[in-house]
Amino acid sequence: MLALAGGVGGARLAHGLARELPSGELAVVVNTGDDFEHLGLAISPDLDTVMYTLAGLADRARGWGRADESWHFMQALRDLGGDDWFNLGDRDLALHVLRGERLRQGQSLETVTADIGIRMGVQVPVAPMSSHPVRTRIQTDAGELAFQDYFVRLHCEPAVRGIRYVGAAEAQPSALLTECLAPGNLAALIVCPSNPWLSIGPMLAMPALDAWLQQPERPPVVAVSPIIAGAAVKGPAARIMADLGLPVSVIGVSEFYGDRVDGWVIDHADAALAPVLRGQGKAVYLTDALMRDEPDRARLAAEVIAFARSLARHG
Predict the structure, then answer these.
(1) CA-CA distance, 112 to 127, in Å (whole number)?
(2) What gap in Å lies between CA 211 and CA 261, rounded to an integer?
């Protein structure tokens, strides 16, 4: 199976899937639309969140960065009058330095990611969606903003009027993604409960992936809703939906994904919306969709896997 992931929610479900699927049966492809260069460093926030989580190194309290982190670098940077709006922990800093150095040496982002994952002890293949740069740009009432300016520096405060994925039209899928999409290689594709516009949207904007999703004869695609009872579990998804005039519910997310998704995993709190989804021709699975701890991740992952397999049998 292939999981498309980004951010904390995506990382948590990917971790559950890695626990529940036998070795060799899962690959994880990660959003790179929020990658950027800062202080001369090559930073890939979604890749790092997913890999730290899969390796058991993530900070569970913050939801991002490494556990047992220290902040001496950031304090020294502040003391010197440096630009400190984007936090970089001391342990985390090593990863960004190493990634940037290897990219400057001519290695691809996919190659660098694979090596780092092995050294971290990640047990499943993880790759960026593409080694070609794709950058999410947020169109707001304050003008068009680079993603990290909107997300971190301005705390998602400007109203969103549109989103662009610069470079996506030219981006070639990573080798891992290409291999997964080859005929006969995939049992199902799972869209993790990541922000649809910020973490999954950049991947869907790549023509090769979108064309695969539009094929009538392809493995089933199952998505886990990131919206429960009208609110995002984490992050600005609900705010973005409201800004764009979309229903703040799984219905709004379903409208965004369209026919790319065959089955929806939604929370019991949204049971009243299941008939609407079924009326759109979608299969629906109701469960407790909130991942509070690692057992929850494994439970939800097992249910998602079983649901995807059931769609494959009846497709």
Answers:
(1) 9
(2) 13
What pLDDT, in 10s, does the model give residues 136-157? 999 999 899 999 999 999 999 9
Q: What is the edge-to-edge ordering of all strands in the sheet holding 27-30? A: 126-128, 27-30, 2-5, 189-191, 221-224, 263-267, 283-287
Handedness of CA 3, 9, 11, 17 (dihedral sign): negative
Q: What is the pTM of this model?
A: 0.94
Quote the CA–CA distance of 82 and 38 in Å, as a whole number: 12
Asked whether 1 and 227 are in contact (CB, 8 A), the reply is: no
Report helix, strand or coil for 103. helix
List residues bridging with 4 in a β-sheet. Answer: 29, 191
Full set of structural domains in the chain with CATH: 2-314 (3.40.50.10680)
Q: Cβ of 51: how many Cβ atoms within 10 Å?
A: 24
